[in-house]
Amino acid sequence: MATREQGAADYLKKHKIMELMENLTSMLFYYRPENPREFLIEMLKVLKISQQSGVKGPNLFDDSNLNAVLGILDPANQKYITFAQYKQALTILGIKDINECPEGVNEDRISHETFKMEAKQGLQRYSATYAQ
């Protein structure tokens, strides 16, 4: 029989509680609402509606944020980054399940479009902490 601690860890993993808490905490720091409790209640409502409707949930990163990341990774604006840069950037964004074979990997040239698509998909998976 599992120990009490293992049961708790299994519960947290099954219901993605740690991811949910990280997501909510990030939103609090990003938006810094005047009434944090009310904000959290609203975010949980949005997540619930997203779960029920299949519509994208809240996300802290948009195209302008991803373009800023690319501006740092590709200051010469060559329109591509290396695979190592791609992996490092996605990891820093909090994406854990990185596509190891994105378009351009064989040439070690990941296009800006591919990076943004992979980042958006990864961030969407991360923000889907309401999914069971």
From TrEMBL:
Residues 64-124 form the EFCAB10 C-terminal EF-hand domain. CDD domains: DD_EFCAB10. It holds the Pfam family EF_EFCAB10_C. PANTHER family: EF-HAND CALCIUM-BINDING DOMAIN-CONTAINING PROTEIN 10. This is EF-hand calcium-binding domain-containing protein 10.
